[in-house]
Amino acid sequence: MPPTITSNEAHDFKAHYDRGHSSPLKENEEEDAYVHRITRYSDGTVKLRNSNIELMDQDILYHLALGSESHDLVEMFGDVKFVCMGGTPKRMENFAHFIMEDIGYKLPAGTQLQDISAYSYRYSMYKVGPVLCVSHGMGTPSVSILMHEMIKLMYHAKCKDPVFIRIGTCGGIGVEGGTVIITEDALDGQLRNSHEFTILGQTIHRPAKLDKKLARELKSLSSADDPYDTIIGKTLCTNDFYEGQGRLDGAFCEFSENDKMAYLEKLQEHGVVNIEMESTIFAALTHHAGIKAAVVCVALLNRLNGDQVNAPKEVMHEWQQRPQILVSRYIRKILAQHGQLKSLFGHQGSIKSPRRFKLVQQESQAHE
Ligand code: URA
After folding, report:
1. pLDDT in tens, 135-190
2. How confident is the model over 92-123, as pLDDT tens digits?
3. Residues with beta carbon inside 6 Å of ligand 1?
4. Residue located nearest, by CA, to atom 5 of ligand 1
5. Are 112 and 337 in contact (CB under 8 A)?
6. Please, are residues 133 and 323 in contact by the beta-carbon 8 Å criterion?
7. Domain-by-domain residue ranges, the chain?
8. 300 Cα to the center of ligand 1, angstroms
9. pTM score, whole prediction
10. Does residue 46 contact residue 286 with C-beta atoms inside 8 Å?
11. Does domain 40-366 match CATH 3.40.50.1580?
12. Closest residue CA from atom 8 of ligand 1
């Protein structure tokens, strides 16, 4: 197995951060090149920044109900190019069916899409050829757990240069419900472009950087014929849906409507166009892993007009397909560029060790 990052490299990286840099542009390029160097092997496969993993007898991806020795992860996932994530299992199942149709992927006769992580009772995962569709739950802790295991899955499966895209919902600020919003920068509750972690009692920040080129490419795939707007802007990520997003309609509210409106206007002045609850952790962990990533959400309401999400169910359903359509256009484009659009064949997951496979299933079920 190829080596992961050494402690010297980790030290190097800290020194690199501590040194300071002459220009922000150069700093960004240098940092990106550095992250790429320590997170990729020369063939593009994912290199982990944790040398403990390769020393382990097996790595159980507990919340996915998968394991490095119970499952043949290379056989099952080695061809994955796109990891699409969204909040709910149902949305990701719908997306899996949608993308299957859109890229013309054919399952072998007599088979159907299955939730690969069903036995975890936590997250859902569907595989459609090179596209993995995974639910991440609500809020940053849930996304964080999934991201650790998805990044490790990319490593174990020897995936080459995977792209991660979050497909979500959000509250718009000054934009109408149904607008598609591509995140340019993810900001935390204090408008910092980073995610705060507490590790061994220490507070650290990791840059919540998304791939700007990918964001522009996604935007370029919106069409003048789309009966809705697709925009790029900054996204505020909060730890709560109610007080944390300045809503007046939670179980508690100790601020006035004027306070709320002043806050939303301040956000607007900063270029914030939407609020959700996952983008900073998603951006921080993909960036730390050197994975190209984007966030595409649809606004469920304009927060300048109210707090309640009350659009009719059918309307909401149609709105939620909009980010999926954009992401599907991107996937089709990339597959077509690589001549892969017409030659997709289904793969069934293979079990390397039935005994260990059973143990992983039982372990996950025991903690249901
Ligand atoms: N998701 C959020 O986090 N906030 C909203 O207002 C809507 C969806």
Report:
1. 999 999 999 999 999 999 999 999 999 999 999 999 999 999 999 999 999 999 99
2. 999 999 999 999 999 989 999 999 999 999 99
3. 169-171, 241, 245, 275-277, 300, 309
4. 171
5. no
6. no
7. 40-366
8. 7
9. 0.89
10. no
11. yes
12. 170
